[in-house]
Amino acid sequence: MLPSTYRVTRVQKTLRWFEGDIPFLNLRVKDLSPEGQQSARQFAAALINQTRAELHRLLEEQPEPVHETGEAPCEPAD
């Protein structure tokens, strides 16, 4: 199983990616019917909400970090 800090960092990165993609989603769906556009936007919103909920759950499960140096942990590489 992956360390909890790694999982939290990955979910945070994924959430930022989803949220940053919204303007591009709007460009990709502009040629769809209004119903198709609405469906795509609803799916994206549901995915973002699910990712936020997962992040919240992971943060709730995570024990309080103890950093003797006072520095934040490093982000994992891709």
How would you describe the overall organization of this protein?
The protein has helices at residues 4-20, 22-29, 34-61. It has three helices and no strands. The protein has one domain. The protein has 78 residues and is an all-alpha fold. It is 68% helix and 0% strand. The mean pLDDT is 86. The chain is elongated. It starts with a helix and ends in a 17-residue tail after the last helix.
Shape summary: elongated
Spatial separation of the terminal alpha carbons: 17 Å
Parts with pLDDT < 50 across at least 5 consecutive residues = none
Helix/sheet category:
mainly alpha
What is the subunit arrangement here?
single chain
> How would a crystallographer describe the biggest sheet?
none
Instruction: Tell me the domain tally.
Output: 1
Order of helices and strands: HHH
Count up the helices: 3
Tell me the total number of β-strands.
0
Strand content: under 5%
Main traits of this protein?
78 residues; mainly alpha; 3 helices
In a few lines, what is going on in this structure?
The protein is mainly α and 78 residues long. It has three helices and no strands. The protein has one domain.
Secondary-structure map with pairings?
Blueprint: H1 4-20, H2 22-29, H3 34-61
